Amino acid sequence: MRRLLIPSIVSAIVFVILCGLGFWQLERLYEKEALLQRIDQSLKADPVAMPGEAEWSQLKPDEYTYRKVFVSGHFEHEHEAHIFGFIVIDDKGTTSPGYFVLTPLALHNGGRVIVNRGFVPEVMKAQDQRKLGLIEGPMTIQGLMRVPERRGFFTPQDDLQKNIRFLRDPAVIASSFTLDRVAPFIIDADATAIPGRWPEGGHTVVSVPNNHLEYALTWFGLALVLIGVFTAFALKARKD
Known about the structure:
Helix 1 runs antiparallel to helix 4. The protein has a 5-stranded mixed β-barrel. 34% of the residues lie in helices and 24% in strands. The model has no long low-confidence stretch (mean pLDDT 91). It is of the alpha/beta class.
């Protein structure tokens, strides 16, 4: 009994931790399924007005991601940012490199929201190659609210001299152009055609990973393995 005391205590603690992680993943599963349901309803619904500046600090990413909205203002093309990326161009999954054009939309009240106007091929990166798409004056944009991207370990560094970036982060874009009162989210413009075609909107990929059931089963499986290992150890100790 003395020989089993410490292993029993340690195993019990680890067992509780593993089960706790499993139940936590089940809770995250229910939350993610509710989020996916909200996103599906939003994509099917009519667009609503973009949240005003007074609401920005209270927004929660899971509550607004992929919300279909509309907003009015005028583009500040002199602050256009280019985010390197790819789009799928056929049913076989073939991709084409280029840039997503992110431009501040100045709102009537003085605030701004960064709009992902859409994709341009590499040869169309320069504004003088797509002058018709540099729309001036008041206009209304419709699209999807997107959560800012965060820099990962393998994310390349931006080349601001060439205006080549790798993150769709409104705070970073605003800082590089010294802009204030910028919304903490991005709006992906829809596929509404514009003069000259480019930038081409409507390339939003709706992707919300939901692997929580697999994670939960993994934690519960490890708990069962722990029971098996401890049982074998206890039987051997008893035999000895």
